[in-house]
Every structure is written in C-alpha cells, then in structure tokens.
Inverse folding.
C-alpha cells in the first residue's frame, strides 16, 4: 500500500499541478502531514518549489508548539515553512466556520505573497463524506451533495482570486494515511477539537462511524458527491454556453443581457448563470440568497427594475442590465457603504487599483458626479449604473479617470493609475474552474 499511495498521488500531481510556484497547507495532523511527505517526494523528483504554510489559530495553548512541529518537518524535508497567525477577537458562536474563513484568507494572502497560484489541501474521503452529510442536513439541496471538488478556486474573495485549490487525497481513507505514516515511523498532531461534540462536524463524524460499524460504507456518500459533481459541471457548461449568447460584460463593471435569449433558456441554467453574474457584478464575498436571485430573475424577465444581493437590474435602450447597487456602494440611511479600497488594493471587490499617485484617491463617482466637468463620458451607460462607477480624483477633487471609461475630456494627467476590472475573471472561474476570461468585455 505504501508504494501504491506514493505512486498514485505522484501520478495525480503530475496530471493536475500546473507550472509555477506551489504551496501546501499543513496543520500537523495525520492527513496534512501525509500529504506533506507525499508532495515533498514528488516536488523533489519534479524539481518543483514547495512552500509549507501552517495556520496558528491561537485558540489553544498547544497551537504554538504544533506550528513549530510543522515548520521543523518542512525544514527537514528541505522546504521553506511559514507560520500564519489568526489574530484579533474570536467569535463565541460559529467558531469553526469563522476559523475556516480566516484560514483560507491567510493562506490565500500567503500564496499571493509567494507568487503561488496553486495550494495543496489534504481533505480525505472521510472529510468528503462528512461534508456531503452536513450540506444535506443543512438543506443545501441536491447541489450541496456535490461536496468538495478535487480542483477548485479559492472560496475567499478578493484575496483568493487566481488561486486554485488541489485535493489529491479525496479518494483516500484517513485510517490508511495513518497506517502509511506509522509504517514510516512518523507521528502527527491530534487536535482535541476534532473530538469535541459541540461541533456539528464532530457529531456527524461519530454518526458516520456508527453507521459504518453497522455496515454502511461512507464511500457511498463520496460516490454520490462524484455523480452530483458531474451534473453540476454539465449545468455550469450549459450556463457558460448561454452566457456566450446572452451576456456582454462592460469594462466599467456592469453587464448587458439579451432578455429574449434569457426567456427562452431553461430556468435552472438561467439561475446558474445569474448566480455567477451577481457574484461578478456585486464584488461581494458570499453567494446570493435564493430568494434574492428569484427576485432579480423575475424582474429581469418582466423588464422591471429590482435591487437585491448587492446589484440592481433594470432596462435601458432595449436591453436588460445588471449593475452594482449604488446604495450598497455609497451607503444607506442605516449603514455605511461598501465602496472602499482595501489593503490589497482592491476596490469594492470589483477593481484592482495600482499606481495611484500622491494625492489621488479612488472611490465611487457618486450621485452628484462631483469633480466630473465633462459628463459626456457617461452617455454610453444607464443612468442607474453611474453612481457606483469607480472614479479616481486628484488632490483638487477633479475626476481624472473612470474605470472602464478612461479619462474625461479636460482632465489633467495625474499619473499612470491602473484600474483592472475583476468581473469577467470571477464570472468565468465561478462557472468553470480554470476557465479563461473569454466572455466578451468589450464595448
């Protein structure tokens, strides 16, 4: 089994790891430690750089020692190791979900800092079975039964843009990985939270263990996940083809849709397309709620205007438009707006901003178009889309550039600011993992 595991994982990595720097997440537990040793052997043979990342959640006194354990393994295997600390206040409820999100954000930022576009994760068949059960129990519907993908985009945005996650061990049982480690004289870290019945996953793990003892094979759940994943991919590819006929991205951040093509499409495919479109146009981190999608879809098919899930749908010049909700960007009476430039240089989750000159600021154009002397530059887009445009203003408050529209007439040259839209990237990678940003974003 030792030779079989080493060879099969090596073959999997040969087929699925793209060129370029590579990173691996390792907690020191049995699964990730086994993957570290397997991937290390493969990387040495392939002549690839492998960076080892470990997250210290700061939740237990032992976590610092566990981090050192991983870093020592990394050094012994000849790899650079990096400790990533989750600092700040921790929530009292939903701790595991918050830790998972924080972990993915830390890993994504570390990968970006090291130039790695690929991150190895050590999820196993056991993890997949638990995930499928959890999603079905939470009412996730048939799509939730698709579980985790062996190759998938990072779940965090915008930090994880461009990062691909690889899970080489999804068809392996944890007990077999532990036997492989023991045969090599290797020990691992046991996290006590993995036995804490306060957590949903732990309770489900115990239920599955009892079912397996009674004769149920957890591989049936992972087989279901594989079947559903095929259906989901088929659905996504159909939505991709529909997008080629019905969607036109505009570089200023909105998209135009052909209403007749949408009406003639299958409702299930249309909703998959709309979900990806809402994520792309809103720049928001989380998937839109089903009721919000239904409200938008109904309005778009009727030619009416609606606001939901961080976007606004409306008609203009005979076409249906999906744009960023100005209220979400600028703020409403009861809360501040989301249109901010974060520490990574991403504005509102929609534009990467670089090379701002001294005195320049990036922000929403706003409802009064302050600082825009010549408004003819706005004539090519709907009025309801204009307040949420990204504008660059100089120290004098005048607009010197608008994302996707260029430099207004009469504006001075305040420097080589660069405004790169992220909409097509997110739309494409949401529908098809690794897909090129090929949907039209001209005009």
């Amino acid at each position: 089994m030792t030779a079989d595991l080493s060879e099969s994982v090596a073959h999997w990595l040969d087929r699925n790891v793209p060129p370029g720097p590579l990173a691996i997440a390792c907690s020191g537990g049995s699964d990730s430690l086994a993957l570290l040793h397997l991937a290390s052997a493969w990387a040495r043979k392939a002549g690839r750089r492998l960076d080892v990342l470990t997250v210290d959640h700061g939740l237990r006194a032992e976590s610092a020692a566990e981090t050192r354990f991983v870093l020592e393994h990394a050094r012994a295997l000849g790899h650079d190791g990096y400790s990533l600390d989750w600092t700040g206040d921790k929530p009292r409820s939903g701790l595991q979900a918050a830790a998972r999100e924080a972990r993915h954000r830390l890993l994504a930022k570390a990968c970006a800092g090291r130039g790695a576009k690929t991150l190895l994760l050590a999820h196993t068949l056991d993890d997949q079975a638990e995930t499928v059960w959890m999603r079905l129990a939470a009412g996730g519907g048939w799509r939730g039964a698709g579980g985790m993908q062996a190759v998938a985009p990072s779940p965090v945005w915008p930090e994880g843009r461009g990062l691909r996650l690889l899970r080489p061990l999804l068809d392996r049982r944890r007990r077999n990985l532990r036997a492989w480690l023991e045969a090599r004289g290797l020990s691992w870290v046991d996290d006590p939270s993995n036995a804490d019945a306060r957590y949903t996953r732990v309770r489900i793990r115990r239920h599955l263990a009892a079912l397996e003892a009674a004769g149920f094979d957890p591989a049936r759940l992972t087989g279901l996940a594989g079947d559903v994943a095929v259906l989901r991919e088929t659905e996504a590819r159909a939505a991709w083809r529909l997008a080629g006929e019905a969607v036109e991205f505009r570089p200023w951040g909105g998209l135009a849709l052909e209403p007749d093509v949408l009406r003639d499409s299958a409702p299930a495919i249309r909703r998959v397309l709309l979900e990806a479109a809402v994520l792309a146009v809103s720049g928001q981190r989380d998937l839109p709620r089903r009721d919000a999608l239904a409200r938008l879809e109904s309005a778009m098919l009727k030619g009416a205007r609606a606001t939901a899930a961080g976007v606004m749908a409306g008609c203009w010049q005979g076409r249906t438009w999906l744009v960023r909700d100005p209220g979400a960007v600028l703020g409403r009476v009861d809360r501040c707006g989301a249109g901010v430039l974060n520490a990574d240089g991403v504005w509102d989750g929609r534009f990467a901003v670089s090379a701002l000159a001294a005195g320049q600021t990036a922000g929403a154009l706003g409802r009064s178009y302050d600082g825009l002397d010549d408004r003819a530059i706005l004539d090519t887009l709907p009025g309801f889309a204009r307040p949420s445009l990204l504008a660059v203003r100089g120290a004098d408050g005048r607009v010197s550039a608008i994302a996707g529209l260029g430099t207004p007439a009469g504006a001075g040259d305040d420097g080589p600011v660069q405004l790169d839209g992220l909409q097509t990237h997110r739309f494409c990678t949401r529908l098809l993992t690794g897909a090129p940003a090929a949907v039209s974003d001209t005009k």
Summary: The chain has two domains: 2-217, 230-443.
